[in-house]
Design goal:
The protein has two domains: about 170 residues, Ribonuclease III domain (Ribonuclease iii, N-terminal Endonuclease Domain, Chain A, Orthogonal Bundle); about 60 residues, Double Stranded RNA Binding Domain (2-Layer Sandwich). Helices cover about 60% and strands about 10% of the residues. Strand 2 and strand 3 form a beta hairpin.
Amino acid sequence: MIKAIRRFYNYYLSPEKDFVRRLRRLLGFTPAYLKLFKLAFHHKSSNDGKVSPYGGQSNERLEYLGDAVLGTIVAEYLYKKYPTEDEGFLTKMRSKIVKRKSLNEIGFNMGLDEILSTFNNTRIAKSMLGNAVEALVGAVYVEQGYKLTTRFVLRKMLRSYVDVEGLETYDDNYKSQLLEHCQKNGQRVDYEILRRFKQDKRDRFRVAVLVNGDRLAVGEDFNKKSAEQIASRRALQGLGLPVTTG
């Protein structure tokens, strides 16, 4: 009853009803706890160490929760969709769907960049989109529970913005490809952090990939794993091996 009253107020009477109606189009329901969803879009880079005006430090806690919930929902979805596939296939498919690059693209297609611009006094980086997707899933879970969160993820994210069948044959795990190639040729692959520094108030990594101790390529990104993937792709190209892009 209380939630129903809150939803009525938020949609019809709240001074922020335009934002609420935008959320309704995005989520498929009217949120009762508006502060929770504001927090989902508030990135830590806008805080400067201060508590945000939206009830918490940033969206990191919601991101943490949403990451776990999203992984479980996707795992369950794939388990039912592919009843004859083994654990290895299911694990790879889940990784393709919930990896940072995929979540960034989902966030962009959902229009989260525009909402993030409203709640953050900083440049909106691509990685913030994936963070916001996870935080949004976390906020939906806190308010709606697992069953309705599953419906939100399947209807508003997977079926709208993910080509699951296309992912079956798509492989952009360049690190895995390089490792497989080198193992076949009896070569050792290592990664070395060349530099870790701050850019736009965030950690950025410059990573080198070495084969038998020789540096083949360097990659740089805000996430160490992503930097390793970039370096691996460049190494594959340098070795003249076919590289899938997209």
